[in-house]
Amino acid sequence: MNLTATKEADEVMERHIEDSLAILPPIRTCYNLQSNEQISLIDVGSGAGLPGLVLAIACPEWRVTLLESLNKRCVFLEHVVTVTGLTNVKVIRGRAESCGHDVMYREKFDVAIARAVAEMRVLAEYCLPLVRIGGLFVAAKGHDPKEEVENAENAIRMLGGSILQISPVDSHSPYGQRTTVICRKDHSTPQKYPREAGTPSKLPL
Fold this sequence. Notes:
Layout: H1 9-21, H2 24-31, E1 40-44, H3 52-58, E2 63-68, H4 71-84, E3 89-93, H5 96-99, E4 109-115, H6 120-127, E5 131-141, H7 146-158, E6 161-170, E7 177-185, H8 199-202
Parallel strand pairs: 1-2, 1-4, 2-3, 4-5
Antiparallel strand pairs: 5-7, 6-7
Helix pairs in contact: 6-7
Protein name: Ribosomal RNA small subunit methyltransferase G
Pfam families: GidB
Keywords: Cytoplasm, Methyltransferase, rRNA processing, S-adenosyl-L-methionine, Transferase
């Protein structure tokens, strides 16, 4: 279905599956998760299900929501859920800007995660409105996101969060590592965020 540029099975396992699994240890550490502890997680801009589907398989006790705006990708995600028999996954077709104002989803998740979606300022506006107070916003970034993270600090504060941890993780990227940026939701996101569809990416906070 042409969802990723990677075509070979071995390369998919290394660059996408193992890369997604590398995010698990920092989440467990920062959330102080015990084994088999249930949490609710939303994967924002799930695409081909990376990392959401992979985490749902690895952690069957987690309740995972895959948020994706394109119908083609949602059809694929639903197909995978059916074929694998996963019972802990829900697929939602929609935009983060809309879901962030929906009472069913706003500040309802323990963890919101995004991989290869947008820069940190934009991701914060997509993800933090979905996270409950005390929960985590997790961004899987490149090998050196220092400047991007610094530029996003003000936006993260405006949206109710603070940077908790920036940790390198092993990866099969060209640099041999990625960086997981973890933010804690400290207080409620102001009602005006997220702004209307398209605005966060055009005019980052």
